[in-house]
Amino acid sequence: MKSPIPDYLNRVLENARPIDYGAPAAYIDTLARADTSKMAVALAMVDGNLYSAGDDTVEFSIQSISKAFVYALAIEDAGLPRVLEKIGVEPSGDAFNRLSLERGTNRPMNPMINAGAITAHSLVLGPGATAEQRTERILGTLSRLAGRELRVDEEVYEAELRDADRNMGLGYMLKAAGIISCDPREVVRGYIRQCAINVNVRDLAMMAATLSNAGVHPVTGEHVIPQTSVRQVLSVMTTCGMYDAAGDWVSNVGIPAKSGVAGGIIGALPGQVGLAAFSPKLDERGNSVRGVAICEQLSRDMGLHMMDVSQIAGATVRTASAKIVAGPDSDPHHPNCRREVVIFGLRGAVRFAGSERLTRAVSHELGEPSEQDPTAGRHAGACAVVFSFRDAYSLNAVARRVIHEIIRRLMADERSVVVIDPSGVLQMDASRGDGPYIAKSEAQARNYIGGSGCSAIMEEDTW
């Protein structure tokens, strides 16, 4: 069975495509010439599964999204107390490139505006490091986060360097205020080079998922960012990551996030998912117009808002199998007698992450065997597929839609599907003739599959 999640992501993109206002960043020549028809979205789960749609291999410069990860490096290299001496954590309410410092301390207000990001860059490897050494450390770390070797877009770097007067001004202002101690020209050049690293949405989603996974890369298992740094970074992303649109973002999307003027956005929901969107047209605050709309729909549909009370509990997915056998009062010649049944049980509060795990479990157990995974398709010959919601006490809207679509696709493949849903959490109409059989209990489901009075011999767990 093909997963319904990529199809859903394509629908999200199509919903955002008619949005036509905004413009690419005009102050950087290479970005001003961006193809505004390009658009992509990606989701990376904390266990490493990645979904994407649209122009998901199109590369663009990371720009200010790099600030979140370089802030983490600054904390790792200089220590959080030293970083907090140099960079605040309060929203500025100003444009990201504003020439301003905090009264009394002379610190940049936060690490997500340019002044704070330049300061964070200067703290990587300490004041004695060169721009090349800092860039090498940053590029290496971002590559480990993405899971592949990234590169600097030299054309973007040169274009930004030609128009770096404001950032150079910030660098000299920071040096005069005693915030940075090294050559401001070197620091600004390194900062611009960090922003010119090329990525795609799949890279960004995996980088965000690493933040969601307490700094551990979901695929490689490498602990790329210390957990204490992750907490600090996500906190500042929540309050400052979307510049002076941070309040609207937290209200409408509710996910720690960071945007970049090339049109990228990342979001990291701890313990669940990393997401990324890309579209070059920006609003007046420097955030991708379509990217924001994509993230709003994902958050709304999937219940990803961090203030959603349904986040308190998670869901588990259990796979089991049983063999139908005749009971003393049942028909031993029933066509399903001695045949296998596969059971997928869900427990707890089921949200998108739980339905996504269920999608993978169904695809794995009922799919085609492969040399790479000998266990794939081990229940492909099952006479019936059972979904048990006996221990699931809630489903949010997107989980329900995903599971409905799983069932629809299985039935389109002429599978016999039985749903055990004593509390009605799936909200599936039992009266529909083209739907699955809805049972209130395991016994009712067994009798439907194998005839009245049949039994089941469990191969795994209990049913």
Automatic annotation (TrEMBL):
The keyword Hydrolase applies. It comes from the Eukaryota. InterPro entries: Beta-lactam/transpept-like, Glutaminase, STAS_dom_sf. It catalyses: L-glutamine + H2O = L-glutamate + NH4(+). SUPFAM superfamilies: beta-lactamase/transpeptidase-like. Pfam families: Glutaminase. Its EC number is 3.5.1.2. Signal peptide: none annotated. Homotetramer. Belongs to the glutaminase family. This is glutaminase. It comes from Colletotrichum sojae. The lineage of its organism: Eukaryota, Fungi, Dikarya, Ascomycota, Pezizomycotina.
